[in-house]
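Possible race condition, two jobs.
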Amino acid sequence: MKRSLKYIALILVMLAAALAWVLAPIGNGYTAKYLCSHVFTSGQGPEEAMELFIEPVNPLFKGVCYRVDYEQKEVTAWFLGFLRPATAVYREGCGCTLLVDDTREELMQQAEGLEIERPVLKDTLWPAGNRVDLQNVPPNVDIEKLNERLRREFEETTSDPNEMINTLAIVVAYQDRIVAEHYRPGIDADTPLLSWSASKSITGALIGRLVQAKGLDIHRPAGFPEWEKDERRSITIDQLLRMESGLEFDERYVPFAGAVEMLYESPSMGAYALAQPLAAPPGTRWSYSSGATNILAKILLEETGGTLRTMEEFAHNEFFSKLGMTTAVFEHDESGAFVGSSYFYASPRDWLRFALLYKNKGAWNGEQLLPEGWVDYSLTPTPNAPGGRYGAQVWLNAGSPEERLLPRLPKDLFAFEGYQDQWIVVIPSRDLMVARFGVVNGGNWSVEELILGILEAIDYSG
């Protein structure tokens, strides 16, 4: 009997060791990548970043040890302090990239000579400048009521890290001017914050800019050589934008799922996604897919010259700088492409500039940055998307009241939304835009309640 128990114990230890070996790349990659980004891209302390952003995501992450190298600007993480280390490297202007196949030296060489000239804003009010006047607001805004409602978003009702809402920033714009903003200590108006899947909307807009600036045809097949010999050859850029490519992709963020393999074990995320087989004929099924957006990022890379440098220059010179987005950072994978699905950083003020571009139908400062009709196209519900909830890389509220994404809010609402409740919400009929960033790990927070509270502070009766 004792011998049997010893064998069982030995088997259990071996299984635990095997599981730790398999899961280590996920925990180490997650920790190294996001800790690097929070420290070097967003300028936050590593201890707070671990406590706020990383450890609550999975209890196993508490077993990950890390080292921040401030001189080399990189972070290395090991499960249990020794198992299968992962390293993420920071490059100025490009944020952090997780090493998979490349070395640090190869990554640095890839970005050699890159110089991003951030726009110099006028000394004037937002959005043309970066000044705000919170004292002189439209007379129909009850500013005390509005500020009180926003302050409540920074008050925690529990000490459980899995239930805290961890609001980092909220900025409210009404009638195209910022009327209120609140930030967590350590965050300010110039802090670039992680937007997670709201990044998809930026990627979609950059494709739109390619259409405007270089005549890209989104209704043509994407044209990848890997697809030439099977039915994938008919997949169009439009179908990728609308999440109707038909490609198989497992969006779950659990071990062995496609999204996890793509983000933490793939040198080219676009290449990983385009290697997936068809699960349905193109154009017949809607399926939310970070892989589809990373294929769009691969297209963006190829159409702008094929290198990290040409892609960055296009994104900044042709888009971010024109909008006055001084804090925009799009992080890359090892191929040089943006991680279009997930890794865009910007301040809430800059996000509201982007929102205003869509509110203004793609026009900015007298220039049509996006093609005529592009915004209407993006905000038109995809036929196979449930409840009119999705357009082209943008979330919508266009369905019947019982099917809407946010049923108590107006039908014309659209949003750029990301994991852990990053929300940039636009309601044209209310002349309102709201950017909210935070780290919600539970299900105890509602953007709908926040927007309803903001609307209650504005008198629309006149």
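Job #2 (started ~2 s after job #1):
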Amino acid sequence: MQEIIDLLERDGIEEVECLMPDLTGAPRGKFVPAYKFIEEGAPKLPESILVQSVTGEHTEQHFDLVDPTDCDINLRPDPTAIRSVPWASSPTVQIIHDCYLKSGQRHPLASRNVLRRVLDAYADAGLQPVVAPEVEFYLVKKNTDSDYPLEPPKGRSGRSQSSPQAYSIEAVDDFSEFVDLLYSYCEAQNIDTDILIHESGTAQMELNFLHGDALSLADQVFVFKRTVREAALRCGFYATFMAKPMEDDPGSAMHIHQSVLDAETGENIFMDESAERGHSQRLLHYVGGLRAFTPNLISFYAPNINSYRRFAPEISAPVNLCWGYDNRTTAFRIPESSPEASRVENRFPGVDANPYLAMAATLASGLLGMQRKIDPGPHREGGANETAVAVPRTLEEALRKLKSDNVLVEMIGAEFVEAYHAVKLLEFEEFNRVITSWEREHLLLKV
């Protein structure tokens, strides 16, 4: 705390944004004058915000999940997760906080603590995971009426994109004001961005992050989403992280590259220069774990009703559990690389996923794969989408598989899994009550 106070006083900070990611990955918290934060420390928050649905609702099981009195939870600021707020009108910092019970233990329903729990399992095994996320998003014209489909915004040319522009330099250049502002915001917040490209969708972009510590990268993705939205608003349009915002364009993913180091030596345990392709048996077991446990945890990669619109044949998202070498049609891809950079890319997570939960899920799956020495089976050669769809196509179907493996549930946290299941099932049932325009169009007078 003293380290944070020294920074606030040194930099003349006037306001502190005390943030924590909720179950959906959205920022919740309070704005506190800096002098009050210095005098009184971090504020408290009601426990109920940990188990809100994406619509802000609570389930019928609400008081089975949290204290019936809706008591306060204790927040503790993480000095490694303090960043400026470059768009604020006065000197402001945002600090990501961890949630604790009154007993002093980590709160089991806080998503940041779920990732910490998985990282503790790696530490107990003498291992350190390394990740590098790739975050896709769309720029869209401001849309204040949800009855109307989203459209691409106009760039500096005064025209809207009307066709896919994968890797187009000119398409990115058309939004140069936004890109320049985004990079300046990221630099001010020490977000380790790497490469920005135009993806295959209309006004769809992808930004890659430098590889590093999983908790730090989850924090950066959490802050980055907010940053992108702010930069877009300043330029007169929206940015969306919906998994499938437009009918005729591909969805947006958050692919996660991952490798594992020996904590003592710092060596990549996926490397074995004496083996075929330079990859160790542990890498194959890791892939085996991804294949085995993705059906259980796919609701962490695809957490919303809209998420499952990504998973359709002939769309650039995985629809089965195939793995392969440098094969982008597979769910789990081992890229061509030097032996030291041996890694696997999980292509299931959508960009709408809570980054803490998506990283916890993929790392937990890989660790159990190595511990159980799960054989991944033969790798896929050729297009993987030619095989049958093997993943859930609805949120409800995905939730039915969530509690299938007791060891996996324990690694994630049984209390959190129970809460997540209840909240996401509530969202499914709320959506399931909505009668869509498609149903009125095709069923009203025909069935």
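The mean pLDDT is 93.
Logs attached separately.
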